[in-house]
Design goal:
Largest sheet: 8 strands, mixed, barrel
Number of helices: 9
Structural class: alpha/beta
Helix content: 25-40%
Strand content: 15-25%
CATH architecture of the largest domain: 3-Layer(aba) Sandwich
CATH superfamily of the largest domain: HAD superfamily/HAD-like
Strand order of the largest sheet: 1-6-5-9-10-3-4-8
Order of helices and strands: EHEEEHEEEEEEEHHEHEHEHEHEH
Number of strands: 16
Distance between the termini: 38 Å
CATH topology of the largest domain: Rossmann fold
Amino acid sequence: MTLLHPLHDPRGSSPSEGHPTDDMPTVPIPARRVLTVVDAASRHERIEIKPPLVRMVRRFITGGFGLWLRLSTAVVRRLGWYECVEPYVGYGTDDYSRLVCRTVYGPARHRTGGASRGIRGMMTVPAPRVGVRIAIDDVPVETVQVGTSEIYDRVDPAARSDGLSAVSDDAGYLDLVADRRLEPGIHTVSYRVARRRPVKASLFTIAPGTGIGVISDVDDTIMVTQAPTVWKAAYNVLLLNPRKRVPVPGMGALFTKISDLFPEAPFFYLSTSPWNVEGSIRHFIADHGYPAGPLLLRDLDPRPKTFVPTGVQHKLEFAEQLMADFPRMRFILIGDDGQRDPTTYATIARRYPGRVLAIAIRQLSPRESRPWGGMSGLAATQPAPITDVPVFMGTTGANLITTMLPYLRQFR
């Protein structure tokens, strides 16, 4: 985990403007534990507490994954590929920002953040322990690195040898917290590694006092992937041309109307899809007119955290992180009944009473939720969640507009 500290005054002032920074050394920010946007194994998922057979299977998979990476790394190096950085959209408050990027291997003309077939993203070879220089709105930042990965890491003194760069973990990820005051709005973060030009990503800074936010699932909520059927989901995510992905009918209109009702509301897109396909999902959101916002995806590399988190764990922990980042914000939760969104969202509502404004569940058709389709009239994949929070269900965005929008208007 890394904390970032600006080399300049938070307002971007220079010493000539009356700030005596020339005579004062930069004081490192004390290290502190923070939640991570790159999945770390929760206390209940740590491999050390699992039964012997589970530990053995997980260590076999982890070892196999490590072997594949060693072989693939040798191949791409022989091809002349070298380190580059994939930037991801960040978010934050007016006091601090959460930034995520990943160092990977790529050819000399590697392009970042493109909309390519998922299979290409899944074949990405991470470049571990690479130094990355970061700037927010062209203001460089100084880093104080505590470990190479999550809060479970031991302190790595070697990582602090260069205050101008942070070092990615064994999976290539950098999960950073920047303590710097920023004006609300969209800022630009640039990332640079040796021998590459800087690459940029947006940083959404949420205004203090923003009362309402939206957390939405992606798969089968805004984009048709047929996630309950493994082989259909694999085809749609990995092989289908990203430009041919189909939006869920009416959901774009629903999101637009929510954005019109609450112009300051941030939209957070939460998915169990891997970070490898972040660029394709981001292009889908832009191409189909959904409000822009950070993507919170899942890491499928089992090594830094001892195994891949479950989809439920992933969504719960990210939702809890957003609750902690914005303690005065109430959220509209939007998902579907194809996986476990109803029970997951009900759990969030119980854990955070008064923080969930409404839950919207898009109901999948039998054809979407079953491997070979099904007969009409069958029950939904999951029943409505049992919670005190209002729950609105419908098969399309138009259904949810009819039922949920009148309720939300009272909070405008």
